[in-house]
Recover the amino acids of this structure.
């Protein structure tokens, strides 16, 4: 069995096909998926998915790209996270790719999420893009290690992976690792210890080869696992078992169903 550790089933393309998406997961041995929140306004729909389906979980958080949205504080995040199907805080982090002026509000929001995660005892889902040094700095300053978590959709260097691993974090690979030109990332996927690896789709984005360019869905996380198995010269079943174990170890509030 495989677990998709990060997807957005509340986004319109996937929400409109909810039953088909769940059926495709079952047909592809994808047993569970974590539906990740990007703004509080949409959180009720994310949580509703997790309440409707025993094998879906939810997170609560505000993405660093979401501006003009309700700004969370620690109390609000903690209150929303106090639900048995909410297993993580995020996605949160820094993204200087779209916000080229590296705004202070992103860093303040990230700090709020780290504090909330530590306070409520649920792990962090960290998004970082073109901001690795600041991301790691804030994680150290706010003691993100005390909350634990995952660097999701990892696209950074081996050195960044090493620093995140030193903080006790897991590294999650998306369909990007299947792209032919992702040479450096493939090397990182060979390097990360097996007991710290996660797999994800980030659906509806980043469909893996051979579905590149289409609307991604959790069923296709299998292609991410296949590529990692190939790169590490390990049986697919071993990657499946390890990433599933890792998921339930990290997201310890997630109940297997
Ligand atoms: Zn992200
Ligand atoms: Zn995402």
């Amino acid at each position: 069995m495989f677990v998709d550790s990060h997807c957005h089933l509340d986004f319109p393309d996937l929400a409109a096909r909810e039953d088909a998406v769940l059926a495709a997961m079952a047909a592809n041995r994808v047993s569970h998926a974590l539906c990740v929140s990007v703004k509080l306004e949409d959180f009720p729909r994310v949580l509703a998915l997790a309440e409707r389906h025993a094998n879906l979980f939810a997170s609560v958080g505000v993405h660093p790209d979401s501006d003009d949205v309700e700004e969370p504080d620690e109390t609000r995040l903690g209150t929303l996270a106090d639900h048995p199907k909410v297993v993580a805080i995020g996605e949160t982090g820094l993204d200087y790719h779209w916000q080229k002026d590296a705004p202070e509000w992103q860093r303040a929001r990230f700090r709020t999420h780290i504090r909330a995660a530590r306070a409520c005892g649920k792990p962090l889902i960290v998004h970082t893009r073109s901001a690795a040094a600041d991301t790691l700095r804030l994680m150290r300053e706010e003691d993100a290690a005390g909350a634990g978590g995952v660097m999701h959709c990892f696209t950074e260097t081996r050195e960044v992976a090493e620093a995140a691993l030193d903080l006790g974090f897991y590294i999650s690979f998306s369909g990007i690792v299947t792209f032919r030109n992702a040479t450096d990332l493939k090397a990182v996927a060979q390097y990360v210890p097996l007991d710290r690896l996660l797999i994800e789709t980030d659906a509806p984005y980043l469909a893996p080869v051979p579905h590149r360019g289409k609307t991604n869905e959790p069923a296709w996380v299998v292609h991410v696992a296949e590529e990692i198995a190939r790169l590490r010269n390990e049986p697919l079943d071993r990657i499946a078992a390890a990433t599933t174990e890792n998921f339930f170890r990290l997201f310890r509030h997630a109940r297997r169903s």
